[in-house]
Structures are given as structure tokens and as C-alpha cells.
Design a protein that fits this description.
The protein contains 14 helices and 21 strands. The chain is of the alpha/beta class. α4 packs parallel to α6.
Amino acid sequence: SLGGWLLLEPGPSYPLFAHHPKPDGEQARCEWDLMKAIKPRSKALEVMKMHRDTHITKADFERIKACGLNAVRLPFGYWVVTKARPNEPYVGPALEYIDRAVDWAEECGLQIVLDLHGCPGSESPEAPCGRRQRPESRWHWRHWDFKKSLEILEFLAKRYGNRTCVTGIAVCNEPCGKVPASTLMSYYSKAVDRIRQSGMPASRVAVVLPLFQRPEGEDGFVKLWTSKTQGRHRNICFDVHAYHCFENIFNGKTFAEQLRAVEENEEMLRQHPMVIGEWSLALGVATWCTAGDLKEDSIYSIFGAQQRKALKAASHGSFFWTWKEMPESREWNFQEAYRSGLLSGAPMQLPSWDGAGEDPLEELLNPSPADARVYYGDTVYLRVFYGRYMDVEGTQADARWPDKGQYQAFTFSPGSDKALSSSTRQPVRHRDVVRIQNRNGRFLAVQGASVTTTRSLKATSADFEVFIDGAGTLLHRGHIYLSSRVTSMCLNADEDADGLAARFRDMGQWQAICVEKSPEEQPCVKLPGPGPGRKAPGTKKRAGNVKLGGNRESRECDEPVATPLAGLLNASATPQLASGANRGRKRKRPA
């Protein structure tokens, strides 16, 4: 994806955002705010011309081709095609840059997907469509100008319909889940008709229909679409963005769970006509403390290899987000990831698992100490559902950081009415009454609905009953619930609120705590080597498969490369029903 060129975002367009702060000194968060920050208007015009002339050039297309890739995705705002609407600060039109991109793609032997990334009126209140609106309620789905969007798609289809390198056109990007399914499907169906009638036939051009955080899920939406259209539209595909780094669900996943999520994505891709419009190497915060002693590059390489394997199942290919990004953000920057060899590893054969008990992949990637039992007096770290570890600073208890440091270190000790035998070590067991002590000798304690700390050895407010998931003895990586002996409420964390609390009796996601022993006690990770037919990372002269016009062909590169990302297939496709997969929000969510 050529993100940040014809629609600005802080990551891929980082120099602009760094050099042109808002009047209050803060960095703009979207193209709308950036254009308003650059004064006078003549300077904004000058800045945008310089950016558009230099951010992406033909040399980039040549490098993309040299990497073994066969297609580019070109995101742009509607104002690049036509003039901006009244009172909007965007600089446009700038259609000559789309013309250049199509010419360069043709000259370099690349396919190109035209991606209407920002529609008139905006398809969401988020920055990827050009304008980030807060509070989100300032935007309503009725603000999206569907009529004008269709006119722009018609114009694009007529202008580029005879260009054989244009093999896909996306009708919007990441539409908000609040847009009713019936409204979105109506727009999609009209868009397909308009595009076909304007010169882009199903035999050559796929129409890309985004699915993003739909309340009915991928399965549900495809089922509704199939029922509504009855297979009338040919060579359409659904665009999903397979990110593993946003929201609580992905921040809370262990490395093993991340790799299983990739497997789930692969299963979904086998069932639906789909393109992965965006993916990256970025991972949620819990990954980094649940991968044993694996180094950063190893984690990225393993994750990249598993994703590339899974993405081969996409009928219409996949596109990495993004070609250019801040150099230090290798997980988002294809060129840096490529140079670092993070996209050249062979996939692992994951151990089979039927979903019962603990996944054996957890033990493989984050091995247990020789004695996995958690004893009273052991140093432990308590991870909450959004991937952070409980910590104590002064009298304040919280879960703020994905670190296992001194502020996150705790020990279990017996409740206020019990004492341990000094002669033997005793493991923590299901329904034990315990106290949880930090390095400074303070105990977690319940005060009303809040969790604070106390030094008192007799305070019953510091007593918790331990409920172990699966009962029995507490083990490394075991999940527990801590019920206050005073209030009977379970301790819980909330990413959007300061401090810990004890407000509900529930033993659900918010109350689940993963107990981990000290990393110093864990053995080294021992991963299986490449199996038969698998190449080790960094192998020279490796050939990769690309998807071109529905056919696979092999290409050789003279240096280590990523398995080439697939372009769009020119094949008719009728939606089928399948299992869905979780989706994350695009780009880095602000703190």
C-alpha cells in the first residue's frame, strides 16, 4: 500500500506532521487538521505539491517490482479526484498523480488497485478517511455523501477502464460499523453496477468491498450480502484488514494466541472471496512478555512467516501497510522489514490443539520453569486482560505497563488469619485465602469499590479468595479470579479508568488475571528447525509465488526477499459462508 502519499496520515506521512504542528504545538492527527495548521493557504499548496512530487516516485515502483511484488494499492482522498467540498481545507484536485501512478505501474509491469480511501462526507470519524472527529458523535453515517461517492467511482472507471494494469477498485475504506448493513450493501451494489457500466468489466477488474468492525461480523455481513444480491455481481471481493495490535482483544493476546489468530484468519480466507487490504507486523503489548527469551527480530520473523503463509489463502491477494513509514517503525515499514529479513523466514508447523486445556503452543513459545507450581513467597507478575501487568506506586494500585519490572513484582502470602509453616514450601491452591504483597511490603486491599494498598498485617480488607480456572494448584500461566473476603467482589482492571477496582461478583474477562513466574526461572525457548521442504531464514535465491491474472508463476530474486504479496485475481467469485476472525482498528491508537 502506498499509504501517506495521496491521503495523509501521521505514520507514513510523518515528515509533514512533524514539521507542521498545530497552533497549540500538538501534532495534527489527520490531513484535515494538518491543512488547517499550515498557514497561509499558499504555503499549504506549496507543501502539498512538494510532498506529492517526492513522497512516491517511479523509483518506488521500480523497487517494489525488484522486491518480487506484483501489485500496489493506491489510497487517495476524493479531493485528489475532484475539488474539495465547500469549507473543507483539502488541497485538490490532483488527478495527475493518480495518472502518474497508473503509468508507472504499467511501465513496471505491476497491477494497481485504485482505493477511494476517503469519501465525500467521510465514511467514518477516523483519520484514515482524512478527518478525525472527536467526540465521534460529531460524525453521523448520514454525513457520508453516497451519491457523490458513486459519481467519483464512475469517473475513475471511465478514465482508467481501458488500462490493463488497473485490476481492482475499492469503493471506500474502513466504513464505520454504525453504517446500517442495509445502507452499506445498497451502496456497494450500486457501486459495482456503476463501475461495470462505466467500463471496468468483471473479466478484468475486481471491485473491492470493505468489511471493517461490522457488528454482525464478517460471516453475518457476507450472508446478508449473498441473500440480497443472489450472486448477481461477479468478481467482487471483501476487503479485511488483518491487524493484531489494536484494542484490548489484541493487546491482551499472548504470542501463541496471536499465531492462532493468524490460523483463524487463514480459515476465513479459504471460505470467502477476500483481499487483505492491509496487514503489518505490529503486535499487541502482551506478545512481548509471553515469548520467553525470543528476541524482537525472531518474534517479528515468526509472526511474518505465519501471516504470509495464511495470506496465500486470500483469493484476491494481500497488501502490506505500508511501503513508507518512520524508519524506526519496522513493523509498519515494508522496506525496513524487508531489509531486516523479517519477511523471509519459513513458517512454523504449529502443534495441533482441539481447544481443550492449555494450548501446547503456549509452552513451546513461553516455557514453564522446571517446577511450574506457584508457591507462597514466589515472585509473580499479574497480567490483566488488556495485556498490562498490575503495579503499585505509593498507595496506588493499577495495571499500566506491559513490563515485568520491580513495580510489577508481587508475592502471595497467607490470609490475615493464617500462617505458613516455615519448614516447607506450599503451593497456592484453589480457594485459598491470600494476601498479595508488592516489593515495598504493601498489600492490595479493597476500600469500597476501589483497590488501594495497606501495610497492616491484620487488615481483612487485604484478604482475597483465589479461584483458579480449572481448580487445583496454581501453575505458571494459570488464570485466577480474586474475590474480596470483605465485599465478595472480584478484583478487576479497566483500560479506560485509573486504578484497579472490585465492583462486581462476575468472574469474566475483566476479572481474569494471568499469573506468571519470574522470567529468570524460565528455560530458553527451543523452536523446531525448518522441516522437509522448508528454507531457513535468509536463504539466497529463494523463489516466491505471485498471483497474476489467476495464475501462479515463480520468480527469483538475487537477495533474501519476502514471499511476494499477491495482487488481484481476475476471477469471478460468489460469496460463501465461513468462520469470521477478529479485526483491529487501523494505525496506532492514541493513549
